[in-house]
Amino acid sequence: MFPLRDSIPSARPPVVSVLIIVACVVAFFYELLLGRHLERFLFAYAFVPVRFFYPEAFDASFAFNLFTLVFSMFLHGGWLHLIGNMWFLWVFGDNVEDALGHGRFFLFYLVCGAVAALTQGLVEPGSRVPMIGASGAIAGVLGAYLLWFPWSRIKSLVFLGFFVTMTELPAPVFLILWFIIQFFSGTLSLAAAGGAGGGVAWFAHIGGFLAGATLAWWLRRRGHVRPAPRYFAFWE
């Protein structure tokens, strides 16, 4: 499934979402300029689980590991990786940003991304493979969207083998199916690879989504979410 648009317009321009997209695009073009030095750059500045969980072996300070945790969210491994992540942020991020406000949304995004990376790191604490991408943070946005906008509908492309169709799905159906795919893909990846190696960080998606949903519930309870008609009836 691939989302094309949702049915709920945002009341305010998604300034932070746009800035994140711009930052990720600029960072990706910088990666392209590095050429054969890219692998060294990623190992030096992206989030590497073994360096985070065993910092003494790499003489890595907590501040540096924290920097790589955040910096990794703006790096991507290819055009499809970048475009897919940025499109999901564009479709779902504006409403979550509208509900939270610009400043809180940025902090929410960073926290979800950090929890996502740490979740994947806990699954593979000895991995030397750099983890990059915004998908964990965006998964947090999806988790918040599920709780705050359950009446939204998502126009989506659905891939059925060689056939592609377009349909409109209720947001809970789209997002819960998305989460189920991440969960089973992560479980199968562990069984197939013994928890080692690179590829898609499925557990980062799972951790980010659960972090986003949990934070969304807490922020709403604390009154930090801009209310809107019907948006919250799903869980109140």
Structure description:
The chain has 236 residues and is mainly alpha-helical. It has one domain (2-221): Rhomboid-like fold (Up-down Bundle), CATH 1.20.1540. Helices cover 61% and strands 9% of the residues. It has a three-stranded antiparallel sheet. Helix 5 runs parallel beside helix 7, helix 6 (102-123) packs across helix 9 and helix 7 packs antiparallel against helix 8. The chain starts with a strand and ends in a 15-residue tail after the last helix. The relative contact order is 0.16.
Compile the SSE list and pairings.
Blueprint: E1 2-6, H1 15-34, H2 38-45, H3 49-53, H4 62-71, H5 79-100, H6 102-123, H7 135-148, E2 153-160, E3 163-170, H8 171-193, H9 202-221
Antiparallel strand pairs: 1-2, 2-3
Helix pairs in contact: 1-5, 5-6, 5-7, 6-7, 6-9, 7-8, 7-9, 8-9
Query: How many individual domains?
Result: 1
First-to-last CA distance: 29 Å
Broad CATH class: Mainly Alpha
Give the structural class: mainly alpha
**H/I helix tally:** 9
Query: What characterizes the major β-sheet?
Result: 3 strands, antiparallel
Give the key terms.
single chain; 236 residues; mainly alpha; Rhomboid-like fold; 3 strands; globular; disordered C terminus
